[in-house]
């Protein structure tokens, strides 16, 4: 009787393992959303309600290795990011070069870096734009390059 119980227990455990392996940890649409934002280069169109200037594009690329990089309009930057559970997105400390540019570009870049540091989640709009959103309701709107 003990051997039969053990075999039944093993079969139940194996069936449960197969069942759980088929269940995704995040909803399918969330995993697909994350897959679509990682890899391409994104160009900022709007930062915290102000249009991003086209004369010095601000870019963002999320690498599959968990590193974000791009150009702030004046300086290059990079650092870690994490995508977690659905639409959560957080950036770790970002390092940037320290080149000087025109004051308007420097102000725009600082507004971008300040907003990026506070991002808590993302969305992909119906038109394909990437929306990086803060808890305060500020947003960075980017389009694929």
Short summary:
This protein has 145 residues and is α+β, with helices and mostly antiparallel strands.
Report on the structure:
With 145 residues, the chain is α+β, with helices and mostly antiparallel strands. Helices cover 31% and strands 34% of the residues. The chain is built from three helices and ten strands; from the N terminus they run H-H-E-E-E-E-E-E-E-H-E-E-E. It has helices spanning 2-21, 28-37, 103-117, and strands at 41-47, 50-51, 59-62, 67-71, 76-84, 88-91, 95-96, 119-124, 130-134, 139-144. Strands 1, 2, 3, 4, 5, 6, 7, 8, 9 and 10 form a ten-stranded antiparallel sheet that branches. A hairpin with a 4-residue loop joins strand 3 and strand 4. The radius of gyration is 21 Å and the shape is globular. The termini are far apart. The model is unreliable at 1-32 (pLDDT under 50).
Average pLDDT over all residues: 83
Secondary structure tally, helices:
3
Major sheet characteristics: 10 strands, antiparallel
The percentage of residues in β strands lies in 25-35%
Order of helices and strands: HHEEEEEEEHEEE
**Rg from C-alpha positions?**
21 Å
The helix content, as a percent range, equals 25-40%
Total number of strands = 10
How far is the first residue's CA from the last residue's CA? 67 Å
Spans where pLDDT lies below 50 across 5 or more residues? 1-32
Category by helix and strand content: alpha+beta
Taken from the alpha-carbon principal axes, the silhouette is globular
């Amino acid at each position: 009787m003990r051997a039969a119980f053990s075999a039944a227990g093993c079969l139940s455990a194996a069936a449960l393992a197969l069942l759980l392996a088929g269940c995704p940890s995040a909803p399918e649409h969330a995993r697909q959303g994350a897959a679509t934002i990682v890899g391409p280069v994104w160009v900022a169109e709007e930062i915290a309600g102000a249009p991003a200037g086209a004369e010095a594009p601000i870019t963002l690329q999320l690498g599959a290795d968990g590193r974000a990089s791009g150009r702030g309009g004046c300086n290059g930057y990079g650092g870690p990011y994490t995508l977690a559970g659905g639409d959560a997105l957080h950036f770790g400390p970002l390092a940037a070069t320290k080149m000087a540019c025109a004051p308007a570009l420097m102000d725009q870049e600082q507004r971008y870096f300040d907003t990026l540091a506070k991002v808590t989640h993302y969305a992909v709009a119906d038109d394909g734009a990437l929306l990086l959103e803060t808890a305060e309701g500020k947003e960075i709107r980017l389009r694929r390059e």
